[in-house]
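Hi R.,

Here's the chain you asked about this morning:
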Amino acid sequence: MRILHTMLRVGDLEKSVAFYTDVLGMHEIRRKEYPEGRFTNVFVGYQPEAEGAVLELTYNWDESSYDLGTGYGHVALAVDDVYAACERIRERGGRITREPGPMKHGTTVLAFVEDPDGYKIELLGRD
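And here is the predicted structure, written out as tokens:
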């Protein structure tokens, strides 16, 4: 077994796709509309689905926002340099919600970014 994808419901599909591709540097892998169900799925990631896990962005045509609740934590991304990644994200219009630096009670360098729907994305320095 392996993890295939994580699904996130989004309120503005094109804004979300732009964030994950233009700001975080992912690629749009595939897109499919389901008119009978009134939703669209877009898969984004850094590599083909056969090689690693991706994100499924689900846009329900009749919804524009969601209550994220308290159960969701974050999606984590490995980056070579957390400080440089945050600068690139900031330059591309991304919102940094926790500036880069060592984690509390540890030495791992991390930062947090927020996507257009409020989902948290953790940036972790590679060890």
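One quick note: The beta strands are 5-9, 27-34, 39-45, 54-60, 75-79, 95-102, 109-114, 120-125.

Cheers,
M.
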